[in-house]
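Hi U.,

Before I forget, here's the chain from the pilot set. I'm dumping it here mostly so it's searchable later in email.
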Amino acid sequence: MKGKIEVCPVRTRKQMRDFIALPRRLYAHCEQYVPDLDLDVRNTFRPGHNAGLKFCEVQPFVAYRDGLPVGRITAIINHHANKKWQEACVRFGFIEFEDDVLVAEALLSTVEQWGRDRGMTLIQGPLGITDFDKEGMLVEDFDLVGSMTAIYNHPYYPRHLETLGYRKAVDWLQVRIQVPTEIPARFQRVAQYAREQKGLRVRKMKRKEVLGEDGQRVFQLLNEAYSPLFEFSEFTPGQVREFLKKYISLVDLRLVPVVENPEGEIVGVAITMQSMTHALQQSRGRLLPLGWWHLLRALRQNREDSVEMLLIAVRPDYQGWGVNAMFFDDLIPIYNQMGIHWAETGPQLEENVRVLSQWKVLNPQFVKRRRCFCKEL
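Structure:
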């Protein structure tokens, strides 16, 4: 007979180690799983490393049975998002559990009560502390290899949530395309029109520019372009500085075109990055003893044949002006030069038909449906 499940708030170093290490056991034989770096998970809960903690209440939990970790979850109240969307919502994230609905129930009921105690009336997730965190539980395409920027989970996860009364809030889809050897004629025509008739141009930023004013302008654009999207809350200056410092060394700026108008304003940005999926799998989430070597080799030797299109943002008053075509017109030749054959987007809202339709020219595969679940408290 199985023992009692006890859900404990993470207070000690051992509990945090259990929280971080649990996925290694749950996905030990799963070829599709891509781990987070242990250090990144740990830093998520360190105020000196996560500016989002200044406006979020966060509490990680670990579920134990007979002394063995069998599940984990994090409760999050994003006060900026709640104020913007006029709701009293507690989020859950970092959810992992054994194939046992009782474990899932223990974890979720703990977050539900934690939220009620703080006046919340709605629970949603998986969502993160910030809008750059992984979100959305995978509900289809479990046979496809995951990515470094999105959640992978076992097929039983969504089944257990539905059993516990959780329902769909929104779905996201990812788009996978085979990189064409030539730029589609439509993109060439539209990009040429945008250059000649609208005066737009593509520019590549230098590293020192990204760390300076250009980086601030890019995040100002992201805040404006993404403002209407589900549960989005604007990035604060502290978050911007943190993100730039953390990620700039990982990004090949050849793969990050910005589009400027005749006045020199940034009106569009595409952030793409050569995949590090296999390097992360080889590292098993650990930098030591040899994890750093796998990651460094992936960054310097271009060993992957795929790229992750992390985000595309266009200023609202320039949407429909050919900015997206300018991105593809610029990136496709570079991808070919680098030996990149496949590109995959991050999660895109299912209801955002305008964005999803832009991929039709490239014969897209719509894959990896993922879901934000919700429940009234």
